Amino acid sequence: MIALVTGASKGIGTACAVALSGAGHRVALASRDAGALQAVADSLPGEALVVPADMTDAGAVEGMFARVEEEWGPVEILVVNAGASMSAPLVRTSDEDWQRMLDLNLTAPFRCLRRALPAMTAAGFGRVVVIASVAGKVGSARIAAYTASKHGVLGLVRTAAMEVARTGVTVNAVCPGYVDTPMTDESVATIASGTGRSQEEARTILENMQPIGRLVTVEEVASAVMWCVDNAAVNGQGLNVDGGAVQS
């Protein structure tokens, strides 16, 4: 099948691409970093297509899907992973910070779903998995914009799932906790600089926020994504992969 992974140049996106390719799917890889995408493509066991795109650009989203369709055909499996975080007290969150979180974490997934779903429903098969966050389930201090965007994307996923439920298409979200990724490295650096702690101490703080006492691995997140891809009865869910921090 034809899969498309956004934010595929590193972290969770790369792990999802590896899992999909290993399962025999052709995988189109999208992000802003063409060089990193090519390195990921070269590492995959199966056929890959590099599609550089800025997910905050509506025209680039359209061009990304058009390129995959031109080369291979309609997208059958879509993993929306591109995202970003930022940390600041709500009262010090600027309009620009707020909009940046909404643009990448909520509007870009909306545009991807809007573009992908018609071909999937017409074919009678499709799988969409959005990488959300446990921040979409609970409120946390200092990440108001990020949390709001992730709550929003869960609403988007649930609504889309209900609209396509009888068509053979499923739409789900995977909600990681703190994962061992470059994004978490940025959080560690922010905690260290803001508290005077060492980066090792800051990382331990994040590890201890999860009952398993460690960061989640990207492979564990990718495994949850593949479960959503493989199970036709899973629809409209926000699957937590956080070591038990948020129980639902």
Description:
There is one protein chain. The longest helix has 29 residues, at 95-123. This protein has helices at residues 11-22, 34-43, 58-71, 95-123, 144-164, 182-195, 199-208, 218-230; strands at 2-6, 26-31, 48-52, 77-80, 126-131, 169-176, 238-241. The model has no long low-confidence stretch (mean pLDDT 95). Helix 1 links the parallel strand 1 and strand 2 (26-31). It has 248 residues and is α/β, with parallel strands linked by helices. It has one domain (2-176, 217-241): Rossmann fold (3-Layer(aba) Sandwich). Helix 1 (11-22) crosses helix 8. The protein is 50% helix and 15% strand. It has a 7-stranded parallel sheet, with helices on both faces. It has 8 helices and 7 strands.
What's this entry about, in short?
With about 250 residues, the protein is of the alpha/beta class. It contains 8 helices and 7 strands. It has one domain (about 1-175, about 215-240): NAD(P)-binding Rossmann-like Domain (Rossmann fold, 3-Layer(aba) Sandwich).
Characteristics of this structure?
50% helix; 7 strands; 248 residues; seven-stranded parallel β-sheet; alpha/beta; Rossmann fold; 8 helices; globular
- Kindly name the structural category: alpha/beta
Largest sheet: 7 strands, parallel
> What's the CATH topology name?
Rossmann fold
| Tally of structural domains | 1
Low-confidence stretches: none
Spatial strand order of the main sheet: 3-2-1-4-5-6-7
Which CATH C-level class is it? Alpha Beta
What letter string, H or E per element, gives the SSE order? EHEHEHEHEHEHHHE
N-C termini distance: 32 Å
Number of helices: 8
CATH architecture label: 3-Layer(aba) Sandwich
Strand content of the residues, in percent?
15-25%
